[in-house]
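[Meeting: bench + compute handoff]

Bench side (C.D.) handed over the final construct sequence. Compute side (W.E.) agreed to return the predicted structure before the next meeting so the bench team could plan truncations. Sequence as handed over:
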Amino acid sequence: MNDELEYRAVLAVDIERSAGRGDRALLEIRARLTEMLKEAFEASGVDWSACLRHDLGDGLRVTAPAGTRKAALVHPLVPELALRLRTYNRGAAPLTRIRVRIALHAGDVHVSPDGTVAGSPLEVLARLLDAPPARAALAGAPQTVPASLLLSGHFYDETVRHGHLGLFPEDFRKVGFTVKEHTADAWLQLPGREPPPDPDTAGAAPEPADVQEEPAGPEAAGSKMAGSEAAGSKMVNKASGHGVVYATQHGTQHIRIERKH
């Protein structure tokens, strides 16, 4: 084995619920996924022909060329892939629809002359791909969401954390996971959707909305309630009999009767 180490970014994708579809459907979705991955890599400025690709059965592992800008593998590559998957799924039969989990990591690996890649970063990548938070997020998302993305802490720190063009840290949520002997934190995103809710706050009641200010409406005659006025944080309603009802945004009401002299 070559003892020289090369720092490489590594990406893996796994097709959700690929088992039980039959050989014809599996061959179709594997071919389609490979085609869309190639297009996404090329749209991101990463030479697909220079990537080292390894079949995972129901997915693919890709080792990017040395010197690849890691941020490009998050943006625009992931949105490009998600867009192609979603477009494809709109016209696909149920057995050939594709949703995937995507994992990204980077580190020093051994690259043999025959293109074989080995090293601990690939073990970390495999654990990220199988991480329960990524599986649960994709399973619980609407069917229109075509992918979940999980970044290792190292990959996130060197790319998304800096908030460069197209990278939004607020779109990711930190999660912890354990797969086999590997325990770590990672960063989760559902491409094309708001960040997955934090389990600690998912059931919390929403904050009360502020009352918006609107211009006062004309005073109505008769016994019916008329238009409303908003002044600061108060909602002002004019009632019949020359009365004025003030309701604060917390629900307290004050009634003032205006008498004619």
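W.E. noted at the follow-up: The chain has six helices and twelve strands. C.D. will use this when planning the next construct.
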